[in-house]
Specification:
The structure holds 2 protein chains of 2 kinds. Chain A is an alpha/beta fold. In chain A, about 35% of the residues lie in helices and about 15% in strands. Chain A is globular, with a radius of gyration of 22 Å. The chains are: A alpha/beta, B alpha/beta. At the A-B interface, helix 2, helix 3, helix 5 and helix 11 of A face helix 5, helix 7, helix 8 and helix 9 of B. The complex binds iron/sulfur cluster (SF4).
């Protein structure tokens, strides 16, 4: 029977299928861990006297509570506070005791967990990948089934390399057509979420397809899959193709020699079969898309950058009205206003959504020779130490610094504001990250989510700006 | 894990849609390495002023709602981050069950693994429960997991869905790790049949 990409990967990983009484038992090929969602799981292992079943299928990094400032004059990395120091230290001890490889703070491979997996060639088509982190969906860009889990489940995978799962439904998201200049993968996914809503993908695994998705780079596909969870879907996938293989080839953990040929031939069998049926389908046309921006306090509250903020009075659903009213109140915005020209305080380029080398190249290209507006703080935070090194080899850091932006060490940084990088109450930020929830980037902070191009254009003007105008100007 | 017992408890309504886990427990509280102290930080940014004093107009701070055991949230409760600190915080704040029209997938999984019962009800029951909680803060409902029913003050019983395995684990107080550990032979057999995809300990040399 014709199968979807998801069904193929799911079926290949069944230790035991679902029964009337029990969920399926799914084998996990790769388990990524970080300091924030793993400590209590290790404590459970110790309490029960258990080992990590497959340390060789597990990899740890430090990213969430890590500083993005370099070593101080004494050579010490200035971690925020004693609690964060303890948490990082606890991860180090856990990895040592259980034999798990760790890309520790201050080492060359450290970085955001969803940046390092693909970068190292660990993320490969057809794999199952989990992490105690909802943006694990990022890895689905390679045709892997990748999703976020809670800390109890982190414990399950550490101890047994398996998870108990009920089979999700499937949703096809078809994006055909050609993106206009200045419109990016980030705009595609913000448009999808604005369309289906933050709960629209609940219970589904998404598969992104269509010519606009095929034409994206791996980085662009990762940006899209990354935000699947913002539409409520635990996982999003893209069928592997030549673009995928080209990206993986030669990376440290990629198969080599004859193993490579064998792997590629297996990967070629993964795409959804002709005639396979999805439980739901959503269609977008890339030609209709323009740069997107969010105005509210969840990623579904997004619009075309040229649109006006919606009016709660126009909504018929009472709960939706209350939600919009609350969001606009928090954001300090008026119904019907345009966001273009809205003054901003901070621009954040970073996070597992948009901190890869191609994001930084695009941002650098637009900001080259320009200045960040007076009174605006712009932070550029590479996704990993390797991205940072690559960017520096290309001189991108100099372009950012000359423009007046801060060039930081790798980590989650202001995406989650756990490490001291944060907005002050009331401040507005244009952010390339993935969440605009109340307080996400710092208590009282107000986030507009957008693409790196929109972020840079806004940094230069000090107000929310349509990047297409800046691109025109750059060309002129 | 303790066995989940039927109970009758006070309800309180927080009828806001899409309550995300960053609101339930803001990220700055995630630097803990255990589960202690999260209850006090539950809904911290909605609950406290910047000087740390409680906001008197926030529903969970109102004395008449003290001791509530069932939280009625808006649609799509628990969206966003996978942090299991969210159910830990809600349980630390005294809740045994959450009611909504639907839950975010990861939150629901996390809640079930900790003995916090996510109860899905239809729109109409949801609206009714919110009005009841708002009209009379002493409103109590019965929660019976065995029967998969809640009992409203007027005696009406409403059935809710739950997958059989989670129900069994909650009622018996068994955690799911034990179940997986018992499958060791099946897992070993799977591993023997399927070549390893990547080895994180050894990059592949040419
Ligand atoms: S960058 Fe942000 S979204 Fe990504 S893993 Fe870090 S905190 Fe989570």
């Amino acid at each position: 029977m014709a199968q979807t990409l998801f069904e193929k990967v799911w079926n290949q990983h069944l230790v035991r299928p679902q029964t009337a009484d029990t969920p399926a038992v799914l084998y996990i090929d790769l388990h990524l861990i970080h300091e924030v969602t793993s400590p209590q799981a290790f404590t459970v292992l110790r309490e029960r006297g258990l080992k990590v079943r497959r340390p060789d299928r597990t990899l740890a990094t430090m990213d969430h509570s890590t500083p993005t400032t370099p070593r101080n004059a004494q050579g010490i990395i200035p971690v925020l506070d004693a609690q964060a120091v303890y948490q990082l230290d606890f991860l180090t001890r856990n990895c040592q005791e259980f034999g798990i490889p760790l890309y520790a703070l201050g080492t060359e491979n450290q970085g955001i967990v969803h940046v390092i997996g693909p970068e190292q060639g660990l993320t490969q088509p057809g794999m199952t990948i989990v992490c105690g982190d909802s943006h694990t969906s990022t890895h689905g860009a390679f045709g892997a089934l990748a999703f976020g889990i809670g800390t109890s489940e982190v414990g399950h995978v550490l101890a047994t390399q398996c998870l108990l799962q009920n089979k999700p439904q499937t949703m096809a998201i078809r994006v055909d057509g050609t993106l206009h200049e200045g419109v990016t993968a980030k705009d595609i996914i913000l448009a999808i979420i604005a369309k289906i809503g933050v709960g629209g993908g609940t219970g589904y695994v998404l598969e992104y397809m269509g010519s606009a998705i095929r034409n994206l780079s791996m980085e662009g596909r990762m940006t899209i899959c990354n935000m699947s969870i913002e539409g409520g879907a635990r996982a999003g996938m893209v069928a592997p193709d030549e673009t995928t293989f080209e990206y993986i080839a030669g990376r440290p953990f990629a198969p080599k020699g004859s193993a490579w040929d064998k792997a590629v031939s297996q990967w070629r069998a993964l795409p959804t079969d002709e005639g396979a049926v999805f439980d739901a389908e959503v269609v977008l046309n890339a030609d209709d898309l323009v740069p997107m921006i969010t105005y509210g306090t969840n990623p579904g509250m997004g619009m075309k950058i040229t649109d006006h903020v919606p009016n709660p009075a126009d909504l018929t659903d009472v709960s939706a009205k209350i939600a919009l009213d609350k969001a606009l109140n928090y954001m300090g915005l008026q119904p019907g206003q345009s966001l273009l020209g809205q003054p901003i305080n901070v621009v954040f380029v970073g996070s597992c959504t948009n901190s890869r080398i191609s994001d930084l190249r695009e941002a650098a290209k637009l900001i080259k020779g320009q200045k960040v507006a007076d009174g605006v703080r712009m932070m550029v935070v590479p996704g990993s130490q390797r991205v940072k090194a690559q960017a520096e080899a290309e001189g991108l850091h100099e372009i950012f610094r000359e423009a007046g932006a801060e060039w930081r060490e790798a980590g989650c940084s202001m995406c989650i504001a756990m490490n001291g990088d944060q907005l002050q109450p009331g401040e507005y930020a244009v952010s390339t990250s993935n969440r605009n929830f109340e307080g996400r980037q710092g208590k009282g902070g107000r986030t507009f989510l957008a693409s790196p191009l929109t972020a840079v254009a806004s940094a230069i003007n000090g107000v929310v700006t349509d990047p297409r105008l800046m691109i025109e100007r750059m060309k002129a | 894990m303790e066995k989940f017992q039927s109970f009758t408890g006070k309800i309180v309504a927080l009828p806001i849609n899409d309550i995300d886990t960053d609101q339930i427990i803001p990220a700055r509280y995630l630097k803990v390495t255990d589960k202690n102290g999260l209850g006090e930080a539950c809904f911290s940014d909605w609950r406290y002023n910047s000087d740390g004093s409680p906001k008197p107009d926030f529903v969970l701070n109102m004395p008449q709602h003290a001791g509530a055991q069932v939280l009625i949230g808006g649609h799509n409760f628990g969206c966003g981050s996978s942090r299991e600190h969210a159910p830990w915080a809600l349980m630390g704040a005294g809740f045994k069950a959450i009611i909504s029209t639907y839950f975010a997938d990861i939150f629901k999984n996390n809640a079930l693994k900790n003995g916090l019962l996510p109860i899905v009800v239809d729109d109409e029951t949801h609206k009714q429960l919110i009005s009841l909680a708002q009209e009379d803060p002493n409103t109590q409902i019965g929660v019976d997991l065995e029967a998969q029913q809640i009992t409203l003050p007027d005696g009406r019983k409403v059935t809710f869905p739950i997958d059989g395995f989670s129900k069994y684990c909650l009622l018996q107080g068994v955690d799911q790790m034990g179940f997986l550990l018992n499958l060791d032979p099946d897992i070993a057999e799977y591993e023997a049949r399927h070549p390893q995809r990547v080895n994180t300990l050894e990059p592949v040399e040419l």
